[in-house]
Design a protein that fits this description.
This protein has 343 residues and is of the alpha/beta class. It has 11 helices and 11 strands.
Length: 343
């Protein structure tokens, strides 16, 4: 669903800038990608094997979706091919030798969300509408666990099969449970329909909360006014308005290379992935190997990207552990907190 935003307009954008400046130790970075018609695991496995066995790629970088990543991770580990910054939230990627997760994982995101909503906001009744796959189920389990720390349980939860858009029956059942907060752990299609259906039936006494992968204006905007007031955990600064130096540089590069493409949080995520790979490859030196790249990534301490808070990569290999709370106001996510911590 993030498609070209995270790859062409994010990762490739950063590498284009790097290559124009002479590359990394004089070597140009080249990407190879294959688009799949869906996020079906079978297609992901076939494409991954093609990249590794035929194209002989050095690493797999910023693949998207929990199901595709979960389906390919054992193959990549067995072949000692680095899996860098996958844009997915399942904890299945944590603590592996050749894997460096690229976004806050579901248990970390859930902890930040519940700490904030059950803590300072003091909400007590929660429900979840989740996608019935690795992405949704990992979030569901994490939300249940973190609510337990506050002595609370979900009052209702409903699943949506991958590929299904019509969520009217699930919305009706969730409304009957009268939750104060309803989490949307979905991909954009059914999430948009959930917001439209909520407005249509006049369900106004629940706070709709989007998970990190949904927290981008470009997708919630598809719901129009129905998205107004939605809150969520954002993992990336506002790509259009942030004054952070790294985000300003990203906008400059986007304007120069892709002037017709509006900046998004998804392309910013890909851009950051390119930045992090470049930093590690420079540290690894001229004799770049997969093992030296991993050692270089593990050496990163307090890295200032100008986009996220200072990054230190620990034994879990995670590259993002924080987010901040936002609310949709006039089509943009307005920050309500500073960076929240998951540790």
């Amino acid at each position: 669903f993030t498609g070209e935003q995270i790859t062409k307009f994010g990762l490739d954008l950063y590498f284009r800038v790097v290559n124009e400046a002479g590359g990394i130790h004089g070597r140009k970075v080249r990407t190879v990608s294959y688009a799949a018609d869906s996020d079906m695991p079978q297609a992901a496995v076939a494409n991954t094997k093609r990249l590794v066995e035929q194209d002989r790629v050095f690493a797999i970088i910023v693949p998207q979706g929990s199901r595709p990543v979960a389906a390919t991770i054992e193959y990549l580990e067995a072949n000692k091919v680095p899996l860098l910054f996958p844009y997915q939230s399942s904890p299945v990627t944590r603590g592996r030798r050749y894997v460096f997760p690229g976004m806050a994982l579901s248990d970390r995101s859930s902890k930040m969300m519940i700490d904030y909503l059950a803590g300072p906001r003091n909400y007590r009744k929660f429900a979840v509408l989740y996608q019935d796959d690795e992405y949704g189920i990992s979030f569901l389990k994490a939300l249940e666990k973190n609510l337990g720390r506050f002595g609370r349980k979900l009052v209702a939860f409903q699943s949506v099969k991958p590929g299904v858009i019509d969520v009217r029956p699930q919305i009706a059942k969730l409304r009957a449970a009268k939750p104060e907060v309803t989490f949307l752990v979905l991909v954009p299609g059914p999430a948009v329909q959930a917001l439209r259906e909520r407005r249509k039936i006049g369900w106004t006494d629940t706070l709709m909360v989007s998970t990190g992968p949904l927290t981008d204006e470009g997708y919630l905007a598809l719901a129009g006014d129905a998205a107004e007031g939605v809150e969520g955990l954002s993992l990336w600064p506002d790509p259009l308005t942030s004054d952070l130096p790294g985000v300003k540089l990203y906008r400059e590069h986007m304007l120069r290379n892709f002037p017709k493409n509006e900046p998004t949080r998804y392309s910013l995520a890909g851009y950051f992935g390119g930045m992090l790979f470049t930093e590690a490859a420079k540290r690894a030196g001229r004799n770049l190997t997969r093992e030296s790249l991993i050692a270089a990534l593990e050496s990163i301490k307090g890295f200032e990207s100008g986009i996220l808070p200072p990054l230190t990569i620990g034994h879990d290999h995670e590259t993002q552990k924080q987010g901040f709370w936002v609310r949709v106001e006039k089509g943009r996510f307005k920050p309500l907190t500073d960076w929240l911590k998951s540790e």
